[in-house]
């Protein structure tokens, strides 16, 4: 095969021909940011597409997490997962909240509901789970625990754009959910993100918080931040929304080919679709059992790299291993055996809507011996 590098992801891009009239219109309006026309249009379009009542756009996927914690007045300790992108835990740290790590379920890689209750202390105020790889958390069990102890639930749904369970958006779970529209995600606005909530009052509060706390020209209601999305990226987002279903279908086809090829490879595990779930195929993780496969995860990872196939070890290292967090009691290896085992065995294979069959075969050939 030629020496072309196969990257782990490739962004969904609107056509330039389609984008230029939008840019022309923005230039004509001369309204570049602060809840402009395209900003409002994209919030409306996302409510419809995602089947949710309220969407607040943000300039990235980290700020809605930080603002959610402010809006819900979360303090003390928050129970979360070490198996995620660092932004999840960083949002707690920036709010002066102590993260408490709980181990994950080996089947879904999401926080293990069985292990949440023992981690609750009098200082616990919320749970922050992540729908890792877009696989839905056990939202019912998490809500039952939250209700029993009077805790808020904030879902980091950065991977879960468009995911539905029995026809209902996964974003309806908990008090609020957040999305990332970063270039590497299923749906992107280059950089961007959103907060999804269920009542108008919360939406209003979030919109104040992302605009420095301004309620009107002279009133500041809270110590807000600047999290606003601009018109150019909102317009780009409107165009990308039109092709995201086709992109998800393209990803599904890639997942089908990977599964066919890897089904009978000893020591290579992967995730199947869940019954009743509309998946978005945001990632395709494989899990290497070194003993059965005859090669460690890292040996395979570097072998793939030598053949120009760039997988990613998502999520390795665990968040609990980073210097900021490793001193926490809950970061102890003994508290997180499943997360460590998964982090040491995972490789996310290249996954994007237009990954072609030659590339897929080349990737598979590196894994199938
Ligand atoms: C991408 C991501 C974020 C952060 O999103 P940005 O848009 O990059 O700020 C947060 N949490 C998870 C799980 C992510 O994958």
Automatic annotation (TrEMBL):
<comment type="similarity">
    <text>Belongs to the DegT/DnrJ/EryC1 family.</text>
</comment>
<dbReference type="InterPro" id="IPR015421">
    <property type="entry name" value="PyrdxlP-dep_Trfase_major"/>
</dbReference>
<keyword id="KW-0032">Aminotransferase</keyword>
<feature type="active site" description="Proton acceptor">
    <location>
        <position position="185"/>
    </location>
</feature>
<dbReference type="InterPro" id="IPR000653">
    <property type="entry name" value="DegT/StrS_aminotransferase"/>
</dbReference>
<protein>
    <submittedName>
        <fullName>DegT/DnrJ/EryC1/StrS family aminotransferase</fullName>
    </submittedName>
</protein>
<dbReference type="GO" id="GO:0030170">
    <property type="term" value="F:pyridoxal phosphate binding"/>
</dbReference>
<dbReference type="InterPro" id="IPR015424">
    <property type="entry name" value="PyrdxlP-dep_Trfase"/>
</dbReference>
<dbReference type="Pfam" id="PF01041">
    <property type="entry name" value="DegT_DnrJ_EryC1"/>
</dbReference>
<keyword id="KW-0663">Pyridoxal phosphate</keyword>
<keyword id="KW-0808">Transferase</keyword>
<dbReference type="GO" id="GO:0008483">
    <property type="term" value="F:transaminase activity"/>
</dbReference>
<dbReference type="GO" id="GO:0000271">
    <property type="term" value="P:polysaccharide biosynthetic process"/>
</dbReference>
<feature type="modified residue" description="N6-(pyridoxal phosphate)lysine">
    <location>
        <position position="185"/>
    </location>
</feature>
């Amino acid at each position: 095969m030629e020496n072309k590098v196969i990257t782990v992801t490739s962004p969904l891009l609107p056509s330039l021909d389609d984008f230029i009239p939008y840019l022309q219109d923005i230039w004509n309006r001369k309204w570049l940011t602060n809840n402009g026309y395209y900003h409002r249009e994209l919030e409306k379009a996302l409510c419809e597409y995602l089947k949710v009542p309220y969407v607040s756009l943000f300039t990235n996927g980290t700020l809605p997490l930080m603002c959610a914690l402010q809006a819900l007045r979360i303090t003390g300790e928050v129970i979360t997962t070490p198996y995620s992108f660092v932004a999840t835990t960083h949002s707690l740290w920036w709010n002066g909240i102590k993260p408490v790590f709980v181990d994950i379920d080996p089947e879904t890689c999401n926080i293990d509901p069985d292990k949440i209750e023992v981690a609750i202390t009098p200082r616990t105020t919320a749970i922050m789970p992540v729908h890792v790889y877009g696989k839905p958390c056990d939202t019912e069990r998490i809500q039952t625990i939250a209700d029993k102890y009077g805790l808020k639930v904030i879902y980091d749904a950065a991977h879960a754009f468009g995911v539905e369970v029995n026809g209902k958006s996964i974003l309806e779970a908990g008090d609020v959910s957040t999305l990332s529209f970063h270039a590497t995600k299923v749906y992107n606005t280059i950089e961007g993100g959103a907060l999804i909530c269920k009542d108008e009052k919360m939406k209003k509060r979030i919109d104040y918080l992302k605009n420095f706390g301004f309620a009107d020209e002279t009133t500041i209601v809270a110590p807000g931040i600047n999290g606003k999305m601009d018109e150019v990226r909102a317009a780009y987002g409107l165009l990308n929304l039109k092709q995201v279903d086709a992109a998800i279908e393209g990803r599904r086809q890639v997942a089908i080919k990977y599964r066919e090829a890897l089904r009978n490879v000893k020591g290579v595990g992967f995730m199947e679709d869940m019954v009743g779930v509309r998946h978005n195929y945001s990632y395709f993780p494989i899990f290497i059992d070194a003993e059965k496969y005859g090669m460690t995860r890292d040996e395979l990872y570097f072998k793939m790299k030598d053949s120009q196939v760039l997988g990613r070890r998502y999520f390795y290292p665990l968040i609990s291993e980073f210097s900021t967090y490793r001193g926490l009691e809950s970061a102890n290896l003994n508290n997180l055996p499943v997360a460590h085992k998964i982090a040491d065995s995972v490789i996310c294979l290249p996954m994007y809507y237009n990954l072609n069959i030659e590339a897929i075969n080349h990737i598979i050939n590196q894994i199938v011996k």
